[in-house]
Design brief:
This protein has six helices and six strands; from the N terminus they run H-E-E-H-E-H-E-H-E-H-E-H. With 169 residues, the chain is of the alpha/beta class.
Length: 169
């Protein structure tokens, strides 16, 4: 029992050290970039999160209720690493891209709301509709999307553009 407590304390210390380390860096485009705030909702562009590990750490760092926009590809991934984070931090998952991917079957039963949209534009609009003051809309795709975007920069710029459109009505 004492060993479990020590391990839990050490894990908490490591997470906090990672949080402090990440916050000491200046803002980097497309990597946890706060790109806008609309009606008390923060919009964070994490398009650089092109793999599961990157997206995991991004989710782990969030402290406010989350609406997570994740990309979908036909790449076989083990999304079970997200289960605990999703249960405790994410209230809505919005997936965009090809329908009926493993993401749907991994996440749909873990959150209050799951939705699939065919495009990033639709996903951003839906996330905006679901968001309430104090929430964060986190765009952290956890995959590449070469079939829809030139690269993560193009994808991130399009996300920021869609959010800007929302702000301007």
């Amino acid at each position: 029992m004492k060993e479990q407590i020590k391990i839990k304390n050490l894990t908490n210390q490591l997470v906090e050290a990672r949080r402090k380390g990440m916050s000491s860096f200046g803002e980097i485009a497309h990597r946890l970039e706060v790109c806008n705030e609309i009606d008390g909702v923060e919009y964070i562009n994490d398009s650089k999160a092109t793999d599961l590990d990157s997206a995991y750490y991004s989710l782990e760092l969030m402290k406010k209720p989350l609406i997570w926009i994740i990309g979908s590809t036909e790449v076989v991934n083990d999304y079970s690493i997200f289960e605990k984070l999703i249960k405790f931090k994410v209230k809505t998952v919005v997936c965009f891209g090809p329908p009926e991917t493993k993401i749907k079957y991994s996440f749909a039963n873990l959150v209050d709301m799951y939705s699939h949209k065919s495009s990033l534009s639709e996903a951003v609009r839906f996330a905006h509709e679901m968001a309430k003051t104090g929430d964060v809309v986190l765009f952290s795709p956890a995959c590449s999307s070469y079939e829809h975007f030139e690269d993560y920069r193009d994808r991130g710029n399009q996300f920021k553009s869609h959010v800007e459109e929302l702000k301007n009505g």
